[in-house]
TrEMBL record:
Pfam families: Dpy19. Coiled coil: none annotated. Its main location: membrane. It comes from Phrynosoma platyrhinos. Keywords: Glycosyltransferase, Membrane, Transferase, Transmembrane, Transmembrane helix. PANTHER family: C-MANNOSYLTRANSFERASE DPY19L1, DPY-19-LIKE 1, LIKE (H. SAPIENS). This is Uncharacterized protein. Belongs to the dpy-19 family.
Amino acid sequence: MQVDPDTLPPYEGLPRRFSARMRRPVLQHYKKVSERQEDHFNHGEIVYHALQLIFFTILAILIMRLKLFLTPHMCIMASLICSKQLFGWVFHKIPLGAFALAILSMMALEGVANLQKEWSVVGQFSNLPQEELLLWIKANTKQDAVFAGAMPTMASVKLSTLRPVVNHPHYEDAALR
């Protein structure tokens, strides 16, 4: 970009006796420096969200139920990893695709380990009195017999015996009928 030395405004830090030829590179340097400084401090919203993420993290550590505020905010902030504006210095050394793939593979390794741990848990639900009740209902009642009771028991009766159930109005929902 060519700068006309006669149109350059006088810079208050430079003496007026500098010739136009000497002022041009100095002013261009200051312009570049000020643009870089503006780029560094032009992300106030990211600073705000980073501080909010730290606050939500502290809340989640102190009160586990408040992790519901942390999780979506953390996902949004994690998406900034692929931002060339913020992490461009990383992408000069490593290609963006490779960086994103490395992060996803590290997360996948941890996820697979968690899934294998959960899948290794072998358990069986057994409630013998409830099973006997369901067998008795199937064997000793008519198809149109109506039952009332606690919500968990009535859910099992409805599912296992296909008999109609009556819910307390407090729990009743028209969409469940």
